[in-house]
Amino acid sequence: MQIYKVGGAVRDRLLGKPVTDIDWVVVGATTEEMLAKGFRPVGADFPVFLHPKSGEEYALARTERKNGRGYGGFIFHASPDVTLEEDLIRRDLTINAMAEDDQQNLTDPYHGQRDLEARLLRHVSPAFAEDPLRVLRVARFAARYAELGFTVAPETLELMRQLSESGELEALTAERSWKEIARALMEDQPQVFIEVLRECGALKVLMPEVDALFGVPQPAAHHPEIDTGVHTLSVLEQAALHKQPLSVRWACLLHDLGKGLTPEEEWPRHIAHEHKGLKLIKAVNERFKAPKDCQELALLVGEYHTHGHRALELKPSTLLELLQSFDVYRRPQRFEEFIAACEMDARGRKGLEQRSYPQADYLRGAATAARSIAVQPLLEKGFKGPELGEAIKRERLRALKAYKEAASA
Fold first, then answer.
1. What is the rounded distance in angstroms from the CA atom of residue 159 to the CA atom of residue 19?
2. pTM above threshold 0.90
3. Where are the domains of the chain?
């Protein structure tokens, strides 16, 4: 029995990056031997075991053979005679197909270290094209290591292009796709993930609504970058720079989908794009089964982001409707995330990345003013039921009028 550290732990150590998760491969062992040493089996598809003390995952060396569509369409074979090289060749990228023993002696049959030095994301073997999930994974790695200068090797990009055209991407489950999308959006340069997907044709398959934004012009006065797709990438980049949570990044990606529906004769204006985009945002949300908080924020940002930009001009009644839509009284954090998404949208414009966004504090102040209305005095005056609701609304409106007058003074 020989045990090797493999994959990301080896890659990141060689890159000088912190190692978080460690994967182990066991060569020359049987399931019975692992159980006898106290390892606990997990997973039904192939033999993976948890270490009796550390809890880390140890997998028996295995080979795989394609026998169906999608990510799960494989037959695995694990036995003591499977070599380390045979196990490594089934991995996606050369930089993930290295192993080291307990003395840090490197096994690198597919030149991963060379590709690390060349800053290349290159596939290990033609079997790369058998797993459509790898299109998303490579795009995610491109986003993760963009700051180090990594790019996708042309021949790997071509395989990704072939996969995108083959119909295999449609076989991916929503859960697997979302897991990769969510991880990619939380990288330091998530816009690179979208760029790579677009470059290989996968964006058109997975998110045609986002792909449709490229080449759609906007008014130069508000959008010096002109192109709606370029703007979307810039907004996503700003969200990462400002360390926004996943829900905000997802909303940033989808906020302008309605502009992809504008007839060419109306370009560069996009009248009512906020409302037109809601059905598209809903479709993307459902396609990937995004978490509820991500779904809700994306829809709200899509519908109301222009309200955010015009906050200082809004009538008190419109401001009150906005606050009601977000349920700021019970869910203040969601309104904070809306404000953040609006600010990222304002900054995601060429040359305006450092602009101030006074709307943010104004909206926070409005929410505070509306929340300051106490219900108890109204109950004491005898209001109840629908009348109480109307009385609360009147008082909040009065508070917002006073707030707006004070802010304008």
1. 29
2. yes
3. 1-114, 376-408
